[in-house]
Amino acid sequence: MAVEPPTFQLGLALLYWLAAFTSCCVMGLLVGFVASLASYGRNGPRVFRSTLARGFQDLVKVSWQRCQALASLTFKEATSRKAFLIGFLFILLFMFGGWFLSESNVEKPAMPYITFVMSAIYFLLNIMALLIACWGLPADIKARSLHTVVTKPVRRSEIVLGRMMGYSAVVLIVLAVTSIFGYFWIQRQVPERAKDQLIARVPVYGEIRFLSRSGQPAKSLTNVGDLWDYRTYVEGLTQARAIWEFDSLNVSELRKQGYVRLEQSFEAFRTFKGDVSDQVRYRITLLNPESGLRVPMPESYDVNEFSEDPEASVVIIPEELTYVESYDVDAEEKTVNLFDDVFDGNSLTVEIACIENEQYLGVARGDLFIRMPDRPFYVSYIKSIAGLGMMLILVVGLGTTASCFLKGPVSTFLTGSLIVLGNIFYEFVKDIYSQKVVQGRVLGGGMFESMYRLVTQMNMQSPLPDNVGTDIIKFLDERVFNLLFVVNAVIPNFTYFNTNQYTANGFDVPWMGALVPSFLITIGYLIPLIILGYFSLQLRELESK
Amino acid sequence: MSDSVIEIRNLSKVYRDFWGRAKVRALNSLSLDVKRGEVFGLLGPNGSGKTTTLKLLLGLLFPTEGQVRILGEPAHDVEKNERIGYLPEESYLYRFLNADETLDFYGKLFKMTKAERRERRDALIKRVGLEHARRRQLKEYSKGMTRRIGLAQALINDPELVLLDEPTSGLDPLGTADMKEMIRELKNEGKTVVMCSHLLADVQDVCDRIAILFRGELKVIGSVQELLEAKEETQLVTSSLDDATIREVESVLEKHGANLKSFSHPTSTLEELFLRTVKESEARPGRRFEPGERPSATTES
Questions:
Q1: pLDDT by residue for chain A (545 residues), tens digit each?
Q2: Domains in chain B, start-ordered, CATH in brackets?
């Protein structure tokens, strides 16, 4: 089975970012304006305007030489605080960690070792980044060493940037060292028989669309009653089809390989038992939408959903394809070249039909992928580490910004909470959102409804009494939900950064599915964080008693 | 170009608590000017508002009321810091850096080239007498050495205006004398120096003008000479006189309607005695002075 990357639409993400960024800016401006009116009375608008103008200048006229000097100082400071000791802790962990790892996963003996290394790096470095980023600036302010810096021609934006750069350099160096150590540890510890699992398989996922049982385009197919509606079901011997379009394929690489390897993880749904030894079967047709060419594969294939042999779910499509257009006995055999005739540029379209009468074939987007030639393990490992690096930079950004207006312990708590929420909150709110959109209501209600049900010992399904109290509860819950959605839109989604699952399962880390989103999320957050950090530091009296 | 390097008008500062309630009024409607090229002293007991004034000048604090202009720019302007040097009360420097690294770091903040930094660093380390300790981390420095490196960092940009907060605090008499000498040198180089201190003798020695603050308010301002001069009395200093000559002088004074209030041998200051003793000891190691004996002024050289 493959690990299906989440979809990431660049254009949409950019629009979403712009909307969120603009909203935050507008809110920040409003709060700032009200605060300056409250503090300076009639002079408030003038102070507000001049602060903004100064802020714009300070953010635009950043001197990289000064930033580098401050980054270098931050680096030395972290070194003097023994930040690199975390590397020794890591090595210590590995000296003894191997004793406690068992090959519990029979199918993938290499997996625990890879997961252990990646998880150890993830947790140790997260803690390290959190602590050094959250405590550095407050300690500097408390010791007043920052005073000698701000009385030089240094802009506060340069202090924020310099700090972020310095801490990032520290965590990235530790990340590089621990990763190199971890890589060789994996190579040494993984049993010889499992060494072949240290690869980076490259699945290419397509976009899926459907044709209904009458051959019309459909959003989904039959729902067989599964509570979890991940898959939709293709009805056997009807015109129902699931069609995958694989774009941006590296054709020259495939041509060099000489075939296309399809891997599937379909699920069968049987409406009658039939012969239990018989598999539900499906047929593959290759399409070229540009030329209208349809090439049915001569064979049909078993679903093999319970087979332990990984090759049982593989379909090899050779370069030379011989087929007949119809099932007439007299039909003429034709031969086409897969890459020249069936491929439309660098795209391939694959149509799947279930050929068992009254049986169903469960399909989802991730159930069929093209496996490109494998890459060495280090490729996926490095990409995973790069994802972690991006996350650490974001943690440093969050911590540094928080420390611009909070003391060390509080900013650590805030940043730590954001990391935890960014890992679990996103899925939680997504679930609430999908319940609201799909079912029109959230099971058990929101905060106030849940409290009411707990107090009155009412189950989640029973309707609330029809009275004013219920209206108030629903009104309040609606506001809380809206707040949750807003908070969810602001908190970084950390799940993109953790790409362990790809590497541990022997897959290459996809660029568009993981690395590009990680990079963009990091940049997308760093920009407002630098602005927020700057204004927090600029508007703060460093000597305030 | 304006003659005033610092212009302070009706400057007030109120420290507030978390809820915004006034906790203490540290400065109350202060107005004063500091002229170009002078050494200006801010005097006052602890808590009189000297350091608050300096921090308001530097933008470390925001005024509650009033205006401040330094070198013609408002206090919050970053660019003006190109021409300012600041020595804080405690030398708040990075203790994990050594003297070379410290000056190099501050030089970088002024966007100096590597060659400029090296040249300036070497000159300043020599000037403050830290050549022997330039590679030691600041955390190993004594108080006096820390003040010296603090002064060096304040001068890294060859500033027009130097703000010194308690420059001689914690220094031994030798260090104090060196510091005062360096302040005089800065004045001779045409720089404006503003220092705040509660060590009156130090201020008297180096300052051209002073302001005395008390509980946040300006009480006295003027030139040291003018403020300390006792115009109703005249002091004559001569070589040693015998009793007969003294009586003769007394009768001459009486003839002119004046009376001799007191006469004695003039004394030097304790600081002078200390400095002479140290220098004599350096010049002649092992020499001990008999009780009552003192190093003569001629041994100073």
A1: 456 666 778 888 899 899 989 999 999 999 999 999 988 888 889 989 999 999 999 999 999 999 999 999 999 988 887 777 777 777 777 767 766 766 666 667 788 889 888 988 888 899 999 999 999 999 998 888 998 999 999 999 999 999 999 999 999 999 999 999 999 989 988 888 878 889 898 888 899 999 999 999 999 898 888 666 789 999 998 999 999 999 989 999 999 999 999 999 999 998 887 777 788 999 999 999 899 999 999 889 999 888 878 788 899 999 999 988 776 767 788 899 999 999 999 999 999 999 998 899 999 998 999 999 999 999 999 999 999 999 999 999 999 999 999 999 999 999 999 998 888 887 788 888 888 877 778 888 889 999 999 999 988 888 888 899 999 999 999 999 888 888 888 888 888 888 888 898 888 888 887 888 899 999 999 999 999 999 999 988 877 55
A2: 36-63+72-228 (3.40.50.300), 233-301 (no CATH)
- Cross-chain residue pair A541–B84, CB shorter than 8 Å: no
B300's tokens: 């100073």
Q: Within 13 Å of residue A172, how many CA atoms lie on the same side as its CB?
A: 16
d(CA A368, CA A206): 8
Nearest-Cα residue of chain B relative to residue A63: B111
Is beta strand B192-197 parallel, antiparallel or unpaired with respect to B209-214?
Answer: unpaired
Measured in angstroms, the CA of A543 and the nearest CA of chain B are apart by 6
Per the CB < 8 A criterion, the answer to whether A182 and A119 are in contact is no
**Which residues in chain A touch residue B110, judged by CB atoms under 8 angstroms apart?**
152-153
| Minimum distance, in Å, between the CA of residue B223 and any CA atom of chain A | 28
B150 to chain A nearest CA, in Å? 9
List beta partners, residue A261. Answer: A316, A371
Assess B97–A contact: CB distance below 8 Å, yes or no: yes
Cβ separation A153–B109 shorter than 8 A? yes
Helix axes A111-142, A156-189, angle to 10 degrees: 160
Residue B209's nearest CA partner among B50, B36, B40, B53 is B40
A58 touches chain B (CB under 8 A): yes
Tell me whether residues A541 and B153 touch, CB distance under 8 A. no
Contact A66 B111 (CB under 8 A): yes
DSSP percent split of chain B into helix, strand, coil, nearest 5: 40, 25, 40
Contact B88 A154 (CB under 8 A): no
Residues in chain A within 8 Å Cβ distance of B94: 73, 76-77, 145
Facing residue for A151 by CB, picked from B81, B94, B101: B81
Q: Is B155 on the interface with A (CB under 8 A)?
A: no
Q: How is residue B115 written in tokens?
A: 């060659």
The answer to whether B60 contacts A65, with C-beta atoms less than 8 Å apart, is no
Query: What's the token pair of residue A416?
Result: 């730590």
Q: Is A81 exposed, middle or buried (CB count within 10 Å of its CB: 0-12, 13-18, 19+)?
A: middle
In angstroms and rounded to an integer, the radius of gyration of the C-alpha atoms of chain A is 29
What is the spatial distance between Cα B19 and Cα A250, in angstroms, rounded to a whole number? 64
Which positions in chain A touch B157 (Cβ < 8 Å)?
152
DSSP string for A397-414:
HHHHHHHHHS-HHHHHHH
Domain boundaries, given as residue ranges, for chain A:
8-61, 62-199+375-538, 231-363
What the block records as the tokens of B278 is 């140290």
**Residue type for position A496:** Y
Q: ipTM surpassing 0.90, yes or no? A: no
Q: List the single residue in B84, B93, B109 with the smallest CB-CB distance to A154.
A: B109
What are the tokens at B7?
């212009």
Question: Could you tell me which of B130, B186, B271 has the C-alpha nearest to residue B195?
Answer: B186
> What is the Cα A260 distance to its own chain's centre?
28
Q: What is the 8-class DSSP label of residue A281? A: E
